[in-house]
Records
---
Amino acid sequence: MKTDGSPGPSYARALQRHQRNRDGQWSLDLVGGAPYARLPQPSTAGVFNAKTLEQMEPDPDPRFASIHAPGPFQITRHASYGTDFGLETGDPVNRFFQMWQQNGGSNDDLSRYTWVATTAGRGPDTPGITPEHIGQGAELMGFLNMAEGDAPYFRELADRYALSDNYHQSIQGGTTANFLALATGDVARYELDGHPATPPLRQIDDPSPQHGTENFYTRDGGRGGAYARCDDASAPGVATILRHLARLKRDPNCAPGTYYLLNNQEPPFLPDGTADIGTATHLVYPPQTIPEIGTALSAGGVSWAWYTGGRDGTDLTADPLYAGAARLARERLPDADEATLAAATATIAREMVYNNSGDPLVSFPRVVRGPDRAKLLNLDAFHAAIADGSLPAVSFVVPKNIDSGHPGYSVSARYEAFVKDLIGRFEANPALFASTAILVTTDEGGGYFDSGWIQTLDFFGDGPRIPMIAVSPYARHGHVDHTYQDHASVLKFIEYNWNLAPLSDRSRDRLPNPRASRQDPYRPANSPAIGDLTTLFDFSGAPAR
């Protein structure tokens, strides 16, 4: 795209095309057809109305009725950029098999995103989604344009500090898998009593197109398919990816007889450490036993905390949505006593405010049932630690849902405001900021189109590029770094700074740092390889002022 948001010389590569599966089976090798004359109208899929506390139906979004583009379009030509409620746009598909099918594992063919989104959608196990009502348009083709004033604070940070334009989400898919990857460099699995087990059939993904449909998956969606046994070449969808990996001579990294969590489910423990009980509409993945960064830091004598907005305390009760949660509790329980209403209000508010997927260490009994549970805290505790100088050596900080920038229930400007507030608190304490590196990123890309090449590491990913800005007096001023990175790079950066070993013999932090290719600086010459983020910094001298 040009700086004014109009098509540039390479725009033709991003034209979206009608596609079809070869032989009617789920495929990575799609057969491309004619370009779309115009993109399908973006929808309101997943949009949460913070005023009514209701989720909108996935209908065409009238703000985008005038779109005539056959490829990427600027969102702010149609919808304002700001923090006000009501500016939210639709939530694109960001599920495992959909994303594999959209980018083919490498993103060499950019024409498939829209067709997959509008034929597979969120899957048949998502309420209200049918082959006749997929509920998705081309919202995933939208972009923000910093050259025209969108995200001004993020642009200021990129100009002032260091930006990676080759940082990727670790897993093809959504929030749960990628937050777990950030904490483990690995993938959650279905286990019972610490041993691999088989999930209920309805929770096993099957992307095979239903009979009579173009590409509407058999078993997939928010209340269904979430796992795959990726050592089983007979499993739907799995064989196709295994063949792709074999051509690249890549190890799938799939343990025998193990089902891996590919899509969103709820963590097995609540913030207070009690077990979360799953239901038919509230699917909970089992407690996890794989190595994670919290226990590794504690074993290495490194102080740490994971701060998640809205997990408890005044993070909830002082939130603007709490009053609405109280109203809903009264409507649902008109005859309840005050204690019951208070408990119901807290539950409803937490569902709206707390990103439980962004608190992945609650998945581990060794953490929630041991002394490290005291290191799982809320944002109030983070702000207090900055103010009184008790901040630990390593902090993970996750905003409330409404401030996360996640499409559907937040907007980018709210995440930008969250980051600005966070960095401002450090800058107000020069002594603290002088020894701090702040890594600003997102859990995943929200399902949006991206044109960057993807390095296939194993069965699970990588996925598309996402933002990464390094904010520090040691960050290379105005630098744009091309080294290939993903969430394991954060783990490698921590391990580099505190001389810690990789978490396991299968976690991504075990991979070597990339050697730059002369032909293409974005593609490691020694693939598979993942950077450790040190290329965004200059530690050779005194920090810049």
Note: The longest helix spans residues 338-353.
---
Amino acid sequence: MTYKNFTVENDADGIALVTWDMPDRSMNVFTEEVMDELEEIIDEVVAEAGVKGAVITSGKESFSGGADLGMLQKMLGIFHAEKARNPHKATQLLFDGAGRMGWLWRKLETSGKPWVAAINGTCMGGAFELALACHGRVAADSDKVKMALPEVKVGIFPGAGGTQRVPRLTDQQQALQMLTSGQQLSPQKAKAMGLIHEIAAPEKLVETAKAMIRNGLKPVAPWDEKGFKLPGGPIYSAAGANLWPPAIAILRRETYGNYPAASAILKCVYEGLLVPFDTALRIEQRYFTEIMQTKEAAAMIRSLFVSLQELNKGARRPAGLPDTKFTKIGVIGAGFMGAGIAYVTARAGIPVVLIDRDIEAAEKGKAHSDGLITDAVKKGRAKPEEKEKLLSLITPSADYADLAGADLVIEAVFEDSAVKKTATEKAEAALGAGAVFASNTSTIPITSLAKNSARPNDFIGIHFFSPVDRMMLVEIILGKKTGDKALATAIDYVRAIKKTPVVVNDTRGFYVNRCVLRYMSEAYKMLIEGVPAAMIENAAKAAGMPVGPLALTDETAVDLAQKIMKQTARDLGDKAVDPEQMKLIDTLVDGHGRFGRKNGKGFYDYPPKPAKKKLWPGLKDLYPQKRAEDVDYEELKRRLLVTIALEAARVMEEGIVTDPREADVGSILAFGFAPYTGGALSYIDGIGAAEFVKVAKGLQKKYGAEFKPPRLLIDMAAKGETFYQRFDPYAKDGEKQAA
């Protein structure tokens, strides 16, 4: 038979080589068509007497990225459409759809002939579950091979047997760690855990897999054999008693109960290991059906998979412009930010000229890259030859003439308009026609900086977050005169360095900083009210934020918060800054010399490692302290999320961000807005605009005008709209509704 997505070749030994190579995709993914074809191939292998077994591998560089989550969205669409008519039938349809892949892998596993997975690259999700169902697993000895079950990161869990096969192949502690974190495994780690059998040189991968069949590989999974025993011992054993109570407590500590899928994994593993394998698969299928109906799964799949992929592929890039092939990039300013930008540029294989006031400063900036790549080599994340190549791509200089021939120049000098003006003029004198100039400003409007440019059409903002090498989001800011070419070039660059671009119209603080400043400001208000600092930080983490607002202030610097407040007061008047909050920050900076992590003392004290940071005891002496029992803890959590979400809504109302995907993805990647919500706007959509407005108005009465819902939200509440309806990112140009 011939197939669209697979080829099947039988060799002289009677071994079928099944090669997965989807013609219309850069990476293999599971679709309904792929699963239909794979089922036919399983039947074919079973039916042909001359076939002793089969090896499945990929014809692409990677094995597979797993299931196409668009397929899951389609399942959910069918479920919601049917639910209104027949809830029972809707749930049954979802249940059947959820089990399709799991029972197909079980069919392969019990087919009576041996199957071997030859894993030649990335092998994720359902693809790794397929491999686990094979009787033998061989992985190529290559850095390109990464295996994982990462579904929990998008609000679901491995629902095609992953929660049952992994803890039957390795001990339960390692299984739970892998399943609840979505961690990636190298071939060596996977073999040590017992999840694969062999590691082979890439060129011998298929031959090694075939040899397993020739050498008599049994077509029976370990758990289908009589007398099978769990690697780490049964649930009801001394080992189980030592594992499960702490495991449940640790999950609660790490997730605060915000991630239903993570809790479902523990239930699946615990219950599944107590029953026969087929029953365990049905337990997993039931939990998967339940999780698929949660708002957390819907929101996380949309934002952290679908929207993220679309933005990474350039969803906001102007159409019709050729892709930019970068041959040289200039970075002006070799301080912490500029040096970080040079590093990620060189890491992407693009030559970069790093300019500073003198060669010593520029060399110091290059040394930052040396330190980062050296550390990566020590940790096994990079090879020594990669270090040599990366450093060869960075040219330190004090001469602006060395920028000649650059496709893009990024200015990352001190946050001062006069200094930026000088840098712009010197750079443009050296640049050729068509080169794009970008400013990495975090506070100064791009339109005002573009006035220093002789070609504002080619002037744009590219706002990185610190530390540049670790933060995955980049804000691209449009000035009033920024042209499409500059935007396309900026998006091409951000994609080239493998970060996610969001496009923002010009305003003070842009998008991310406006939201972050609200988050911090609400924490300062709580302190002033007498809420114990520990309660503020704990409430933030319980609400789903990765870092408390006081700790975040320390990371960005308390004295920077002071500078921003003072600059805001100068620009917008004294009423633009809460005098009590200004007094709090002045007290820390001027009264106690507490600048944040950078000088070892801020809202926290930072003792020498390995000691951990701890809240500064002096905080409780600044204001009369409330008793913990007199504080509404749930309201603290609500205040911290609602204040951010309201600012995100205002940004949409003002037209600063126009695409809800960017608002949601940006809020998660930039400052970790409670990922289980799907992002700041999805948080509002999940609650419902009418209910959210009611909550906001209640907080406004108690805590002030910053909780006043904008007109946009009030209008949405009246019309029963969501942000994804009001600002449909998939509508054709000109069809989007105005706010």
Note: The chain has three domains: 6-293, 329-508, 513-726.
---
Amino acid sequence: MAELSGKSIIGFQQGGGEASIFGINPATGEKLQPGYAAASGAEMDRAVDLAAESAASFGKSTGADRAAFLRKIADNIEAIIDDLAALAPQETGLPEGRIRMETGRTCGQLRLFATVAEEGSWVDARIDHADPDRAPVPKPDTRSMERPLGPVAVFCASNFPIAFSVAGGDTAAALAAGCPVIVKAHHSHPGTAELVGQAVIAAVKDCGLPEGTFSLLYGPGREIGQALVQHPSIKAAGFTGSRAGGQALMKLAADRPEPIPFYAEMSSINPVFILPEALAKRGEALATGLHGSLTLGVGQFCTNPGLTIAANDASLEPFVSKLAELVGGSPGATMLNPGISDAYDSGANTLGGNNTVDIVAQGESGEGQCQARAALFRTTADAFLADESLGAELFGPSTLVVTHDGTDKMLALARSLEGQLTSTVHGTDADLEANRELLDVLETRAGRVLINGFPTGVEVCHSMVHGGPFPATSDGRSTSVGTNAIHRFTRAVCYQSFPDTLLPAELQEANPLGIRRMVDGVTS
């Protein structure tokens, strides 16, 4: 395994300081070595200053150069996959197979953004030619395109130590756009962060890019994280984490003298609606699929289905009985860290202690620390609508079944929901045709609406939307997965009456890059 320094990566230099942050094996409580030193205020300032100094040159680099850089990062990460597969499970409790899968996804995502940067049409080039003879006033020549914002702060997620962390989606999107990135490592997997950080900084050097293109900082979230978001040279930030943490940073970003865009993924219960005919025809299969979805990754995916809504008719009880059987037989499993484990236990106890909620089934207890028991709860539509606490996210392997007595009550449940990452509907063709209004409502509540599937897992592709109305994310117009994420870190600039030689290549008359553009209202 590559040697771990226990230090921040500040451009091409290591940080200093004494170890104060240690990864913890969540299954055993073992303190892992090495310990990591928190970046000082001066070191954070140095990282941001380097990023600001590099922003102009990196922002003007070609799409081909940025594509080569992203592909080099992917190559470097693949070269250490065995090291990651050995270390990350110790820090997170996740199995080796999951780490290998996540590493593959991350490298695929980096290469996907490389193709976007290289092809170049993402800049949305628009050209309107001058018309000096237009009356009553001449029309000027105007041309616009997306340009990078500048240095971006990225916060690593606890539940995806690779795919939503150092070289994850926000980092890939920002680098593809031409923005330097400063990553705040997550305390749960500091060694994994350093391994990936070493792979990224090696790619910076190999590709001859400016020193400030990338840095990785360690430190207490409230101190380093808040300071990063408030630093005047940071122009945007991406965050995946808790609702409380996300909202606190959102406020700091908005209250700056120069407010910046802050993209936070925070909270989602991902409701699953099961329509009557589907429940009658395939109830057992639905129970099996739902169980697999809610327990996948110990329920620590941001898209695990925490809410299941079905009509209280003759088909309901066999479905609930089968789901209870499966949940009851679920083995205990290790959660990511003590904080997440304690929050799950507390939330499950609170939900189970609500006098309108029944505990239908609980899984087996695991051995060791940070063990989660799968759980199945049940309540009624009237109780759910009367108590907003029942709609709170319970991050772990559980779901709350809410029963209703007809379409009107089902629609009331749908309309009562906060913003979600996903909403799912299971139905036959006849069910779906009869419930178009439900689909219309869910479109207003979620970033991704699924039919006859399960929400856990996110396809990394051009069309994916992994976002949603608040509080699923801070800005429902955005996505953290899919190539539209590049626009998180750009802004449009219009060039009026520029000589052709002074225009960016994307806007020059001859279209030297051969990209797709809109010219006088026609896209080709």
Note: The chain has a mean pLDDT of 97.
